[in-house]
Specification:
The chain contains eleven helices and 13 strands. The chain is an alpha/beta fold. The model has no long low-confidence stretch (mean pLDDT about 95).
């Protein structure tokens, strides 16, 4: 049943009102949802207009009237923090009918540059990705047969304040060359667009795997070169990846250890959307113009 015909007023709880969560909050508030977000320290949080913020520890008490839940927090060694802290309250939440979970395309592991789609079985190669897959399974168990569960597998997130535009301006951009090694990425506001589309749909109970990636997986160096072009600056020196890897952190190298291209065709069809920023070119241009 859609939220337009359901008598229960829609109330979205966002577990983790951070960079992506705040963008979703703005979209959901514009749709007429009551929006509550959690923060570790509400006194230091700055929720967007139309949203209220509560302490993460208080989320269990808020679940009585929550109809929709979006989880953005990453799992740790102890598993998913929302489930660990509020599992019984989540299971018993009387009005909760939709759960969205922001996971990662990292659950597919290394595919040698091959394409994966929403039906591809996961094969995580990194510990953090294995934790994400375990969290997905835990949310699937929590949702059971009576709730809708949308698992959003998200590519590399960029947007205002977190893009190659800022890195070029700050002199921290790197142009690492690894021919054929593509990354899938997504603009923060397109994450919000997709989640809002799912909220509008009010899907029936069941699981959907959705890919939040733009239309063009691309080499990292191409993104930096485009940012330099937009700014009218010379790009940073090109450095072969094998040379650059010697100065990178283990975490940084781990991202480069996997190469895959992630398809989004089924997701866009399921949600009935087209991206605001279908490639990094449109996204970077909007960031530079101050419109994104």
């Amino acid at each position: 049943m859609s939220r337009m015909t359901d008598p229960t007023p829609p109330h979205l709880l966002i577990a983790g009102l951070g960079y992506s969560g705040s963008a979703v909050a703005r979209e959901a508030a514009a749709l007429g949802f009551r929006v509550t977000g959690t923060a570790r320290d509400p006194s230091r949080a700055a929720p967007p207009a139309g949203a209220e913020v509560i302490a993460f520890a208080e989320a269990g008490h808020a679940l009585g009237g929550v109809t929709h839940l979006l989880v953005t927090a990453a799992p740790g060694e102890a598993g998913d923090p929302m489930l660990a802290a509020h599992g019984p309250a989540l299971a018993a939440a009387p009005a909760l009918r939709w759960i969205g979970y922001l996971s990662t395309t990292g659950v597919y592991g290394d595919r040698g540059g091959a394409w994966v789609d929403e039906a591809t079985p996961p094969a995580p190669g990194q510990e953090r990705s294995r934790r994400r897959l375990e969290a997905e399974e835990a949310w699937r168990a929590l949702a059971g047969p009576g709730r809708a569960l949308d698992i959003f597998r998200v590519g590399g997130i960029y947007g205002p304040g977190r893009s190659a535009i800022e890195e070029m301006r700050e002199g921290t951009a790197h142009r690492r060359l690894k021919p054929g090694h593509a990354f899938s990425r997504i603009h923060r506001d397109d994450i919000a667009l997709a989640v809002a589309a799912a909220l509008r749909q009010g899907p029936p109970p069941g699981l959907r795997i959705l890919h939040l990636v733009d239309d063009e997986p691309a080499e990292s160096a191409l993104v930096v070169e485009e940012a330099a072009r937009l700014l009218g600056l010379p790009p940073p020196p090109a450095v072969p990846y094998e040379q650059a890897a010697a100065t990178m952190s283990p975490m940084g190298r781990s991202f480069w250890a996997e190469n895959r291209r992630v398809s989004n065709a089924r997701t866009k069809a399921a949600l009935g959307i087209a991206w605001r920023y279908p490639t990094y070119r449109e996204g970077l241009a909007a960031i530079l113009a101050g419109g994104a």
